[in-house]
Amino acid sequence: MANLNFKGKTFVQNHHLAVPYHQLVPVKSKSLTDNLSLNDNLIIHGDNLKALKALLPTYAGKVKCIYIDPPYNTGNENWVYNDNVNSPMIQDWLGKTVDKDDLTRHDKWLCMMMPRLKLLRELLNDDGVIFISADDNEIFHLKMLMDEVFNNHYVGMLIWRKKEGGGQTDDYFVTEHEYILVYAKSEKFEWIDEIVPVNEAQFNKEDKDGKFDAIKLAKWGTGAKREDRPTMYFPIKSSNGKNIYPKTPDGRDGRWRVGKIRMEYLIENNLIYWEKKNDEWIPYEKVYFVEGSSKKLKERSILYEVANTGDASNELKDIFGVKDIFDNPKPVELIKFLISHSSDKNSIILDSFAGSGTTAHAVLELNKEENSNKRFILVQCDEYSKKSKKLEDICDNITAKRVRKVIKRFEGTFSYFELGDPIEMESILEGNKLPKYEDLARYVFYTATGEEFKPTKMNEKKNFIGETKEYEVYLFYKPDIEYLKSTAFRLDDANNLGAFKNKKRLVFAPAKYLDSEFLLEHRIEFCQLPFEIYRMKR
Known about the structure:
This protein is an alpha/beta fold. It has 3 domains: 9-190 and 299-419, Vaccinia Virus protein VP39 (Rossmann fold, 3-Layer(aba) Sandwich), CATH 3.40.50; 196-294, no CATH class; 426-534, no CATH class. 28% of the residues lie in helices and 23% in strands. It has helices at residues 9-12, 15-18, 48-59, 88-93, 105-123, 139-149, 260-268, 309-320, 332-340, 358-370, 394-409, 426-430, 437-449, 481-486, 491-496, 516-521, and strands spanning 22-26, 42-45, 63-68, 124-134, 154-161, 177-184, 194-197, 205-207, 210-216, 236-237, 243-244, 272-277, 280-288, 294-297, 302-303, 348-351, 375-380, 383-385, 390-392, 415-422, 464-467, 471-475, 504-509, 524-528. The protein has a 10-stranded mixed sheet with strand order 1-20-2-17-16-3-4-6-5-15, sandwiched between helices. A 4-stranded antiparallel sheet has the order 8-9-13-12, with no helix packed on it.
């Protein structure tokens, strides 16, 4: 497999591991629910690299479908490279706008995308899928990067016809399309074809065995010539005993659609229908109508008439009452098409470049149409506005505002979160920016076990934060430096854990006053805060 190399790759390929976990701080005034929860529909305001890392303790391996519409890197988008990577070269990139004259703009774009794609992959379920919109500026780089990050689990490339007409200022020809790259987490992914009832009207012939449709036995289209499949060129007897050979539509030697064994079966079971055309006998296979039968409608890779950019602009105008409130929005029908073919009724749908909030709109509309319970997670940072020439809070002013308006038409809730302080364990030693109990519990549980933290299972009074098949997990902690200086795991604490059953007890505390023999005998594994919570088991 060809390798994609770009400036900065060695510094960013593991950067997602160095990104600290951040607290997710609920904002009640911007939410549309009375019960703020990470298990609600979510809108998260902040840098999407940090937000994706913050979502891991709750959503790793839980997301069924991801759609993202990252910057196309045309040179006109005014996006800025902002990832604080430990490299002098990349440090020099920080805060600088990426424009057409930037000779490293492709390198910067790939450095921005790689750690985000790696975190997105961690969030996907084993049978999950990611869709990425792109155009000619980065599609070929993106394809190679995705091959690497997603271990060649390439599903395909959809071509979306985004507009009709216009484009008279284009240099060579009018570009009417964009691409949507499709990659799976693993081979477990299944594309969901539309299943429709078979139309009885197409079975327009009838014999003693019932109504049937006649399907031509000679192959047509690609690979229809004799030389394409020589073993499938042989004679069969017509109703008057004459040998009939397959022919292509232009009269050359052709081939049958079926081989000799299948053909013999059709002959023996009277499943061939003969029709005379231009003094020649033409054989067809009989396909009988079965009451209640259905068939799959396979989708095409070129999406001609799903929706276009004009539809997307009109949708935003209908919602906000003004034109051009957001540049290059995607139409709802396009995102509905992708979600409906890749998710079930209870799936989680993630969009970490949420923009105008089309993905949430699509989820809410599908829930209404299908009576389903899909949930969305949107992440949106501040963006540069061409109108105001400055950074604007897109998340609150457009993304969340649109979702509120759409929910009025349908129904639903969402919890709004801001990115809070990083959860950096070294700060526990200094007493600076100590995280809340639940935030540290979420981080400790996930990093130690690799499994989802469930706050409803937590009992802070008993220091219990959850369990896995192997462990019961306990955390002795308060966001109080004096508590941390004076607290140790003691004999009374061990006895209060209760009698152990089949599981070990994993205990996090600032110190312990118990010897190793006691801990071993009582199946307790002790981990000292802060450093041993880095013992990733994933």
